[in-house]
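Data availability excerpt. The first of two example chains:
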Amino acid sequence: MNMTRKGWIVPVLAAAAMCGGSTLAAQDHDAPEGNQTTLAKALMAARVPLERGLAASASHGQAISAKFEMEEGKLQLSVYTLKGGKYFEVIVDHNSGKVVKAEPITEAEDYTAAQSQTAAMAKSKGSLRAAVEQALRDNAGFRAVSVTPSLKDGRAVADVSLAKGDELKTVSVPLP
């Protein structure tokens, strides 16, 4: 793997952290710094894009955020959902697009992030999947790494982290 491929994940995570606030920090707390190269390599091989993971998680509630991450040395696609007033982390297989498991969110940091994301989604009638698809239409050739809703000036937006080779960026898409 060349250096440009290795180096793109650090800025993606940094940009997403700035745009996503505590969400990315809450979801990435278990990924040591040394795993960033591993995440970058694994993400390039993932067959299921983020937007398909959002669609797969729909049976477990409304998606309130999603991202690729490394868990115990393996790539996983994690989607936070809200169903029946309860928060869940839904894990979608990045090769098949099927839900592998759904666990209640109980850790304080993750729970707080989920509450913040829910507040942003409550101000919107749009979906995160539609926001990711819009970001990808506007940025041909990119792949979505994460999506996190937030409130900016009282309006809901989705911050979508995108990557293409060694180029990365985060775009904000209004959530109508």
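And the second chain:
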Amino acid sequence: MRAVAQRVSRASVSVAGEMIGRIDTPGLLVLVGVTHTDTPEIAAKLATKLWHLRILHGETSCAETNAPLLVVSQFTLYADTAKGRRPSWSKAAPGPISEPLVEAVVASLRSLGAQVETGEFGAMMDVELVNDGPMTIILDVNE
């Protein structure tokens, strides 16, 4: 799995003009991409890493401050741009594989005690954020 975690002062996600998730206090906006070899165990590992990642102010984590997370699925994190000008999406897992794994990340975060908002899997989403810092971290989680 691959994730981009951005420290934000606030963030929201909307579908067709309707806001479906938002955080109004400092926390993390997390874009999550899934590849073919990912598993529920990898999803749990990513969730734990995100929950304890010390990138909030004062080198604290969401676990320490109870900061919220907004999790949005993002298959384009596995874009392959090695050849030509058009990205290939072959490294991104298809929806039937990736949707349950993104949901597993969210469920694992919630089981750790996290306040989690989400986007809508497969939808065209408008994501708004105020990046705090800016602070943006890319995480690759492999077994």
